Amino acid sequence: MTASPDLGTPRAASPELLRSVFRQHAAGVAVITARGSGPVGFTATSLTSVAADPPLLSFGIGTGASSWPAVSEAEHIGVHILGEHQQELAATFAKSGADRFGPATSWRTGPEGVPLLDGVLAWLVCEVVARVPAGDHRIVLARPVVGDPAGPGRPLLYHQGRFNALRD
After folding, report:
1. CB atoms within 10 A of CB 95
2. Helix or strand holding residue 107 (H, E)
3. 107: how many CB neighbours lie within 10 A of its CB?
4. Phi and psi at residue 98, in whole multiples of 5°?
5. The sheet that has 39-44: what strands, in order across it?
6. pTM higher than 0.85 for the full model?
7. Which residues, 6 or more positions from 26, have their beta carbon under 8 angstroms from its beta carbon?
8. Which residues contact 90 (CB under 8 A, 6 or more apart)?
9. Distances (CA, A) of 33 to 22, 43, 72, 123
10. pLDDT per position as a tens digit, 20-35
C-alpha cells in the first residue's frame, strides 16, 4: 500500500476557500462587452466553451457588477481573448470605476452594435441564449454568430491574483 501525500488541513467551505483554491487555477483572460446606454465591459476569467454543436460558451457575471444591467438585457455580447501584451487592458476592464472605453482603449462598433476591442487574439460576437441564476452571479450562455480567431501573439493568463504570460 502506498502512503498518501499530505493533503493539508481541510477547511470548511466558504467564499474565501473557493477564492483560495481558484487562485491555484490558471485561467485565460477575456473581456466581455455589451451595448447598454453606452459601451460596457468587464474582465472575465470564467469563460468556458460549453458545446461544439451547436456552438455555445458561458461566462459568469456578478449581479452587483456595473456591467450587469447592460448584460442582463443585451441580445448580443462581445467576447475577446486577450494577449499577453494586454495586461493593462485587462486591468482597466477589471477595475471598478475605470473609464474602460476612454482614449486609452482602442475599439470599434462591430456586428449587432457590439463594442469590439482592437488588437485581441480572438473575438466573437454572440447571441445571448440564457442567463442562469447562480448565487450572487448569473451564468450567461451565448451562441457565437461571427468572429475572428487570427489575432497576433500569445494568451494572457490569470494566476495567483496576477496577470501572467505563458512560459515555454
Report:
1. 12
2. strand 107-109
3. 20
4. -70, 150
5. 39-44, 30-35, 76-81, 122-134, 137-148, 55-62, 48-52
6. yes
7. 157, 158, 159, 164
8. 29, 31, 43, 82, 156, 158, 163
9. 24, 9, 12, 11
10. 888 888 899 999 999 9
